[in-house]
Amino acid sequence: LELEVYNDDAVTDTDNRTITISAPSCKFEYRRQITIDHNQVVGESGDSVDLTNFPILVHLTSSWLRTTTADPTNGRIEHDQGWDIVFRDDGEDGGDQIFHEIHFYDGGAGAGEYWAWVKVPTLKATANTIIYMDYGNSCIDSDTQNAAQVWSGYQAVLHLQESGNGSDDEYTDSTGNGYDGTGGGVGDRVQVGRDV
């Protein structure tokens, strides 16, 4: 954006000033390729068939996963909840965004750890599957994950990462179907609020 400012009191061109204003880029500054080994893709009967709309767990640790606030030198993540991390398929023009659920994120200065469930449209059985992780967008100010879409087709998904202290509905059903559960302590079963 370029703006010219004129001085109405003077008539010479030397009094005119040009000011350049830099706006945020509002784009993902970084991209990483994630390769899924086709030798790890096996169907229910043990055969090698493509799996469709299959959630995979992505786990990464590195200093670049720290927030830019916590680590201005190495950090590349702009949002403290990791909302500016998205996943895309291997399509044209950068690929389509695919659904993900953040399982855990720590972007602190001594950390840089990220876990997410990513729903891959097609996991290939005879060739490696490529997806991309885009990150580092300072304009993202709302949640980009969609857990219900990652787990569509499932009745209930409970990750059991909560404390297990027995409070009502503490175990959250990621599907959005409302099958939240209540723990009772170490060794106790999780009680789901409805029949699954």
Q: Could you give a short description of this structure?
A:
The chain is mainly beta and 196 residues long. It is built from one helix and eleven strands; from the N terminus they run βββββββββαββ.
Keywords:
four-stranded antiparallel sheet, three-stranded antiparallel sheet, 2% helix, globular
Architecture overview:
- This protein is mainly beta and 196 residues long.
- It is 2% helix and 31% strand.
- It has one helix and eleven strands.
- The strands form four sheets. Strands 3-9-5-6 form a four-stranded antiparallel β-sheet, with no helix packed on it. Strands 4-8-7 form a three-stranded antiparallel β-sheet. Strands 1-2 form a two-stranded antiparallel ribbon.
- The radius of gyration is 23 Å and the shape is globular.
Topology:
Layout: E1 2-5, E2 17-20, E3 30-36, E4 51-61, E5 85-88, E6 97-98, E7 100-106, E8 113-123, E9 129-135, H1 147-150, E10 181-182, E11 191-192
Antiparallel strand pairs: 1-2, 3-9, 4-8, 5-6, 5-9, 7-8, 10-11
**Low-confidence runs:** none
Hey, roughly how much beta strand do the residues contain?
Answer: 25-35%
Spatial order of strands in the largest sheet: 3-9-5-6
Distance between the termini: 56 Å
Residue share in helix:
under 10%
Q: Based on DSSP secondary structure assignment, what is the total number of beta strands?
A: 11
| Tally of DSSP helical segments | 1
Shape: globular
